[in-house]
Write a structure and sequence with these properties.
homodimer, 422 residues, alpha/beta, nine-stranded mixed beta sheet, 38% helix
């Protein structure tokens, strides 16, 4: 499809947060032009009057477990250990591949409403997830969730090879669930795999104080230091959550060029704590933002996450000037793309992939237009997402979905599943 | 207008959070029936198939300064004192009555998108605000914002008399801005007024640690103790923010039957701190929730506030089970109504005012329906608000407004104002 957007405000994020007025052309899956209105003889499939709304790069949800949608609001307001051991793990153990396919698609519907155009996914059954994303048109980078109980090294290598040779919409990165669920032997094996493929490695890292304490007791090292000591970061990568990083940990992230993926909604609901983001910014570390899974958040909403990144930092530092909202918008877009290795999806410019969202500026929470970037971070809501385009295809527009399946079928399947497992 | 809603889920909140299936009738400005489908010979103006969405009481925004919309995103990420003294106060001083009318209407548009059916308002020019709310159909309880610089006792008594004898949609309560902006003489005078009319009194109270410290230095008492010592709470009332209450303060709130209005979004963005909500709940104090004004939040979104009430409590107490989301839904509806003296608007039942919202359950963030109340608090968004009815009149439905004026006119006026004052 060739689509011309005109009469638009465009926040390209190519350089800074300046906004230009004009038009944006999409030919196939890529952006072919951004600039002033100009003549052309292209055969357009659609020409869309953007009515001075904003076009900007889609958000990158840089950490999630999409398949957990069936657990939303099933067990909240419980202490963390009871929540995980009594409510989550026993039910997850009963999931079939088809269950995961439908639960992932329910999450994809929600991502689209929140302007999310790619996800950094860690969950069970990677082949099914890969299919679900391709079927729905969602850009997805999966990461291995290997641990002592599932997804062996052998399987991870198979996934790595297979899922990186299929659709250009999906890819696979090496990873492990977390230090506390993996033996040293397993992690050494993963390090060897990372060296074999020169591949970055991601995992949950320092999400809670007790996790860090446990690792120190086991190895005399923090999770970051321990991973680094095994060579797991020799080809880059990073960590999810990273609430409790020591200065030495931060230095490892800096030296190895690793990314930190912040998950403030989940860290809030599960009472994990507040990450020391200014320290990470000062060290020049690439920061990205993720929703985490829908059991621990419970919603998949980048607007909530963006507000929390700046808001919680302000509370944490007792300083209303901490972590400027403009920096947060960069984290939610370019920062995520960098962490996920999506160098073609980070900003809007000629030749980049057409992962584009339209933010309605004619809604009351977006008025007046004193500072559009700050409006998005401080006042933005899913209600402002008027369109979500991924790889040149409009998957969500004015409340309607186009993911190759009726949302009602997806809702019905997941409701039945939830009823069965409750 | 007589309106019949059928095929609905109804969360009446009359007793607990049980949900019934059936229909709800509105005759004029009141609810006349809730229950199973039944025959009737009423002449309906509209019969609305709710498609198994949820009808529930509208949210009560129990603390706001609506007229500040022009300041949204004009000056963020600044230290609190610079923000207030350099950015806010000088611009507010330039506002005309018409400016406040339009700014208030912009806020009202946003309230409607967030399912807010009444506001507890403190701002400049109460007569204009009263008019703006009546013109737009917004239920509004104003409260005096008297201080050493504006709104004298004489004026406050005039407002009290005049604005409580007009439309049933609006009313006026006694109040003062805060202890630190009012002399002891002024507050003693207000206490006399409160005793004269047996009227409750509200004010900002203990929003920051330094505010409490200043009061202790001036009077040897906290703001709560000082107000109580002047007899300001003898006829009830309460405080906004209440982040820093001592045990003795909490006891005064309990004994005098006062309400605490929580403002977590504002307290977060301005780095004021986290209120100790479990302690207030344990004391049995009535809790309500407000957005505060759009310069300090920046959005007027009860979904954000509800999540923050439970989420920040969890962080504050380092306990994922702190402040159950169901309690939060009560605060945002019945708690607010109680604080604002709106005993006819607290829940959905026969004879109550028809302040009703429709929450779409067929959106992905509301699926599956494991627990609808928790879905609303944890996953809810403005995008789920399909209808907002106030006093029996539908003011917002499927993205369209009916407030007697074209939203574009309002946007245009406020944009011009913002451009002029920036």
């Amino acid at each position: 499809m060739n689509i011309r957007f005109y009469n638009a405000r465009i926040l390209s994020l190519e350089n800074g947060t300046g906004i230009i007025s004009g038009e944006l052309w999409v030919l196939g899956d890529r952006i072919s032009y951004i600039g002033k209105e100009k003549d052309n003889d292209i055969k357009w499939d659609r020409q869309i009057d953007v009515d001075k709304d904003l076009l900007m790069p889609g958000f990158k949800n840089a950490h999630t477990h999409s398949g957990m949608t069936f657990l939303r609001s099933m067990a909240d307001d419980l202490p963390l250990d009871r929540w995980l051991n009594e409510q989550i793990f026993p039910r997850e153990a009963k999931l079939s591949g088809e269950d995961i396919r439908f639960c992932t698609k329910l999450a994809i519907l929600e991502y689209l409403t929140s302007g999310i155009t790619s996800i950094f996914e860690m969950y069970l059954d990677p082949e099914i997830i890969d299919e679900a994303c391709i079927e729905s048109g969602m850009r997805c980078v999966q990461v291995g969730g290997m641990n002592n109980f599932s997804q062996s090294l052998k399987l991870q290598e198979e996934y790595y090879t297979k899922l990186n040779s299929g659709s250009s919409l999906t890819s696979y990165m090496l990873g492990y669930h977390a230090e506390y669920t993996c033996s040293k032997e397993l992690l050494s094996g993963l390090s060897a795999l990372s060296h074999k493929y020169s591949a970055p490695v991601f995992s949950h890292n320092s999400e809670t104080a007790s996790e860090v304490q446990g690792c120190i007791e086991r190895y005399g090292l923090t999770p970051t230091q321990f991973a680094d000591s095994l060579g797991l970061f020799d080809h880059g990568g990073g960590g999810y959550h990273c609430v409790y990083l020591s200065d030495e940990d931060v230095d490892i992230f800096r030296k190895k060029g690793l990314s930190i993926v912040l998950n403030p909604g989940s860290n809030t609901k599960l009472a994990s704590g507040i990450a020391d983001i200014s320290r990470y910014l000062d060290a020049g570390i690439n920061l990205a933002i993720g929703t985490d899974g829908p059991a621990s958040n419970n919603c998949l909403d980048m607007f909530r996450e963006m507000f929390l990144v700046t808001g919680l930092s302000k509370l944490h530092e007792k300083d209303a000037s901490a972590v400027d909202a403009t920096d947060v918008l960069i984290m939610a877009t370019k920062g995520g793309a960098k962490a996920m290795g999506l160098s073609d999806c980070d900003c809007l410019s000629e030749g980049k992939k057409a992962d584009i969202i339209r933010i309605g500026l004619h809604d009351p929470n977006m008025q007046p237009l004193n500072n559009i970037a700050k409006n998005i971070v401080y006042s933005g809501s899913k209600m402002n997402v008027k369109m979500t385009m991924i790889d040149g295809v409009i998957r969500y527009e004015d409340g309607n979905f186009d993911i190759g399946q009726d949302p009602k079928e997806i809702y019905s399947y997941v409701q039945d599943l939830a009823d069965r497992l409750r």
